Amino acid sequence: MSDDVEGPDPPDIEAPDAGAPAGPRSPGLAARIVPWVVALACFGYLGWKLNGAAAREGMTLLPYLLSVFANVPWLTWLALMIPYSAFFFLIDSLVVWRVINWFNAPVRYVDILPIRGSSYILSIINEQVGKGAMALYLNRRHGIPGWEVGSSMLFIMFCEFYYLLSWGLVGWIFQRDALPEVFGAIPTIAVIAYIAFPFLLAIFHGKIGGRTGLSERPLLKAFRESKASQYVTIIILRSPALIAAVFVYTIALRLFGVEGVSFGYMLGVLPVIFFGAATPTPMRAIAIMIWVELFPGYEGQMTAFGFVQHNFFIFFNAAIGLLFLRRANRELFEGSTG
């Protein structure tokens, strides 16, 4: 949440035996095809925009893009992104640790780091595989049923929605005149979501619709046991990552040649972009397209920026996971407590 603050997606898992680790279910044909169709549409649109921008510069597409990449001070950019990515990893692990300890079993924060980091590697291929690995690890090491882990991951994703929406509302309040007109829908969405929250909480606790048995489903275990204050706590724990992202992304934009962007404006747009990045499309295509739309006249810079910003985040997190992979494998397959 990713990236970025590209937050966790719910594990797509079958209902196994209550004590068995939950494994990722093979997605249907439509679930596999639709993200690629959307991505191809986004990249087709980007190609059209980039060809127009290159023509205005009297260049063809490839030389135009190469000139954009050549003008970026990459070492400075890396010095900015590496600490930020590491910081996000610590915050992301903190959220997972807090939720697992609330709803599943007491687990040390330092024991969450190896499996959270290692799951980033598998998430390059498929986010659900990464979640399945976490479920398997926590089942073998701590005896936590897979469905309980799935419920906790779904709880985190639910909080992620309110977290991004809340910060998006704050950004809109302070930057409403500078933001695109379409962002004016944010307050309406926020009001509806906030009004719906107590009703959702009542459903989760069986106070509404109790006869349907919905609240008793295993995947809603974390929601059934949750308190309103715990949702707020997750939003607070996540918030330092977004605040850091506002500063990092604003400075990074300047490195790509886009001047005059304020920290306040970035606060207004980043939550929406992170929603786009969380959408399951290859190479974060929707997020890249949003960047290009938000900064007309900088098509090449914003395409390059969106592409490297979001995908570096994914691959660097995977590199962090490599540091923990040996320990995670040892603890998972050899039963070591080391």
Describe the structure.
By secondary structure, the protein is mainly alpha-helical. The chain has one domain (29-333). It contains twelve helices and no strands. The chain has helices at residues 29-56, 61-70, 74-103, 109-125, 127-142, 146-175, 185-204, 221-225, 228-255, 263-278, 285-294, 299-333. α10 runs antiparallel to α11. The longest helix has 35 residues, at 299-333.
Structural class: mainly alpha
The major pleated sheet works out as:
none
Gyration radius, to the nearest Å?
Answer: 21 Å
Please give the oligomerization state of what you see: single chain
Summed up, the domain count is 1
**What is the number of helical segments per DSSP (H or I, 4+ residues)?**
12
Large-scale geometry? globular
Question: How much helicity do the residues have?
Answer: over 70%
SSE topology string: HHHHHHHHHHHH
- On the 0 to 100 scale, the average pLDDT is 83
Low-pLDDT stretches are 1-24
